[in-house]
Amino acid sequence: KDSYDITLLPGDGIGPEIMESAKSVLSALCDRCGFELNLREALIGGAAIDAVNDPFPDATLEACQSADSVLLSCIGGYKWDGNPRELRPETGLLKMRKSMGLFANLRPAKVLDQLIDASTLKREVVEGVDVMVVRELTGDVYFGAPKGIDTDADGKRVGYNNMIYSEGEIERIARVAGDVASKRNGKLCSVDKANVLDVSQLWRDVVTDVITDEFPDVDLSHMYVDNAAMQLIRWPKQFDTMVTGNIFGDILSDEASMLVGSLGMLPSASIGESGPGVFEPCHGSAPDIAGEDKANPLALILSAAMMLRYDLARGEEADILEAAVETVLDQGLRTADIKQEDDGCKLVGCIEMGKAVADVV
Ligand code: NAD
Ligand code: IPM
Ligand code: MN
Questions:
Q1: Going by CA atoms, what residue is nearest to atom 7 of ligand 2?
Q2: How much distance in Å is there from the Cα of 283 to the middle of ligand 1?
Q3: 311 lines ligand 2 (CB under 6 A)
Q4: Is 266 in the pocket of ligand 2 (CB under 6 A)?
Q5: What count of Cα atoms within 13 Å lies in the side-chain half-sphere of residue 21?
Q6: Which residues pair with 160 in a beta bridge?
Q7: Which helix (H) or strand (E) holds 250?
């Protein structure tokens, strides 16, 4: 196969700018490598609320499910923060993940030598770090019922969500993590809060059973999430693959981005048992810099590389794209988030960074 249907979801904030950069890069890659991507755009998040009053319209679900793969920028913004829950951009993102069955989110935090000084941590701490966070994506306190804000007997409000995992949900994410770990260096750390939470005790028991039974060669350890947050900063090289629930994974992956130097460098792959995946940077819509051509498009471009590798079986082209990103960093081009004072590098905007990558693929 040398022609693929790709649905692009530009979303909100910096989303449209970084998508423009990614599009120019993908088109250059297609020219160089002799395959075709039929790109079509669909609405999600605030853009979809404004257009059709629905953060994840049925037409978008259809456009995603009928594609070979989906590339998503980011959603959200101040404009919609006061909306009722069902009309929030974030609700659209969660609906997309749930309705497409994207229960596994792979978030690689790989430190590039060119960016060691972009991290706020010491060189010897971050140099050579290569961590893969396997985050469960369709369960946990994000989706648990009951949820809401009610009024108690004293007339005071109570807000609540339910942290809940079924055995089946834990088994399937443990299998993904076991598989990922066995293709890396065989070390897997499961992160939970089993000292306090019943849901975490089940998590720990089920992960242990799945890995012991199905991945006997994987070296499994367990860590409490508070300690894991600290250990990631203290000595991140102790970790290879980590597996954790939805909310712990959300937080730990943003934390891991600062090992790499910027949230603007972290890609991700959201995948299910079958059907197209969604490839999305870990960052949000960065409303503080939206529309200013300051955003780093590399997290989205690296997400496109994950799309090529995982959904289109184009591993060679994914390698070319990742190498092109390193080449522009070698050339000394930096967006503001990865620029250091006196580093001798050239400050560039989002569009110029995209063009530079497109030039070297
Ligand atoms: P954020 O990730 O948007 O931004 C956090 C900080 O990182 C900001 O200072 C921002 O400027 C910077 N940053 C993020 N991406 C960058 C990039 N590519 N280049 C340069 N700098 C970058 O998180 P936030 O400010 O907490 O949230 C803003 C909005 O994004 C909220 O509405 C939130 O719900 C939403 N959000 C969406 C996603 C998503 O679409 N997957 C993820 C996280 C947050
Ligand atoms: C992410 C984001 C989302 C999440 C929000 C916007 C719903 O933070 O993709 O990391 O929490 O999953
Ligand atoms: Mn997040």
A1: 90
A2: 5
A3: no
A4: no
A5: 29
A6: 148
A7: helix 246-260
First CA to last CA across the chain, in angstroms? 21
Domains, the chain, ordered by start: 1-106+263-361 (3.40.718.10), 120-260 (3.40.718.10)
Backbone phi and psi for residue 73, each to the nearest 5 degrees, phi listed first: -80, -85
What's residue 53's pLDDT?
A: 98
| Ligand 2 lined by 140 (C-beta under 6 Å) | no
At 328 the pLDDT is 98
Q: Which helix (H) or strand (E) holds 148?
A: strand 148-151
Ligand 3 ion local residues (Cβ < 5 A)? 250
pLDDT digits (tens, 9 = 90+) for 223-256: 999 999 999 999 999 999 999 999 999 999 999 9
- The pLDDT > 70 percentage for the chain reads 100
Contact 214/249 with Cβ under 8 angstroms?
A: no
pTM (whole model) above 0.90: yes
Catalytic residues: 142, 193, 226, 250, 254
CA distance 192 to 326: 34
pLDDT tens across 113-139, in order?
999 999 999 999 999 999 999 999 999
